[in-house]
Amino acid sequence: MNNYSNALREHHLKATPQRLEIANALAYYGHISIDNLYEIMLKKFNSISLATIYKNINIMLENSFIQEVKIPHEKSVYELSKEAHSHLVCNECGEIEDISIDLSQVSNAAATNTHFKIDKIDLVFSGLCQKCQTL
Amino acid sequence: MNNYSNALREHHLKATPQRLEIANALAYYGHISIDNLYEIMLKKFNSISLATIYKNINIMLENSFIQEVKIPHEKSVYELSKEAHSHLVCNECGEIEDISIDLSQVSNAAATNTHFKIDKIDLVFSGLCQKCQTL
DNA sequence: TGAATATTTACAAAAAATTGGTATTATTAT
DNA sequence: ATAATAATACCAATTTTTTGTAAATATTCA
Hints:
By secondary structure, the first copy, chain A, is an alpha+beta fold. Chain A has helices spanning 5-10, 17-29, 34-44, 50-62, 104-114, 130-134, and strands at 32-33, 66-69, 77-80, 86-90, 96-99, 117-128.
C-alpha cells in the first residue's frame, strides 16, 4: 500500500491521517463520490464530518492532487491525479473504467476548426461494459 | 423565431408558455445554467419560481427534449437536443461553443480496448477561445 | 526532540441547491 | 365548450455544500 505523505506535501497539503485515508480510498476504488467517501471514512474515523470531507476534497482539487470526473446523469466522482486519460461508464452497473486513447487527431481538428487553444480534454464514453452486455 | 409547441408535444410535454419560453431561451443562448435561466424567465413571468424551472428542466431531460452539459469546474448548462456534437469551453470568458467532430476513430479504439458497447460520447475541450488568447 | 506556529479537525450552524405538496390555473382531446 | 389531465405558483421541506470557531494536530526550526 502506497504512502501518500510525500505526494500530499508535493501538492502543498499537510499529510493528515484523514487525507492519507482519502488518498488510499481513491487509490483503492479508483473513482469515488462524496457520499461513498464519507461512508468509507466513517469506518476509520467515526467522528469525521462531511464538512471535513468537502474541505479536503476542495483543497485537493485546488492543488491538483485529485481530479473531478463528471459523469452524465450521476454525481461527480473523484480520482487521484495521473496522466491524462478518458473514462468509460457502464449505464447498467455504474462501473467506471480508465482508458488511454490518443486524442491528438480530435484535438487538432477542434483547434483548427475553432481557433481555440486547447489544453484539456474531458472525454466520457457511456455504454455497457462487457459483463452487462451478456446479462 | 421558432415555435416549439409541436416539438414539445412530440416529446410528450405540454406546451405551456413557461416551457415555450425555456425553449426559446435555450435556442437563443445555446447553453444556459439554471440560475441564468431563472433570471431570464423572471423577465417574462415575474411570479415564476425556481421550483418550476427545476421541474421543467428535469422533465425535459427525462423526455430528451434537452440535454445536460457538464462543464469542468462549472455548474451544468442545458441545451436543446440536437445531433451529437462536442463542446469547447473558454476558461477565460466562459463561452461554450459547439463543434462537430468525427469520433468514430476514438470510439472504435475505446470499444476494442475495453469491450464496452459504446452508445454515447461526452467530449468537452477546455482552453482559450480566439478572443481571449489575444487579450 | 520539543516548543512555536500554522493548519486541520469536529462540531454547529448557515447558506445554497433541489425537491415535494397542494390549491389553482392552463392545456389538451373530445 | 367541456371534462380530464397536467402544470403552475407558492410555500415548505429536504438535501447538498459551505462557513465559523475552538480544540487538536502536523510541521517547522532551533
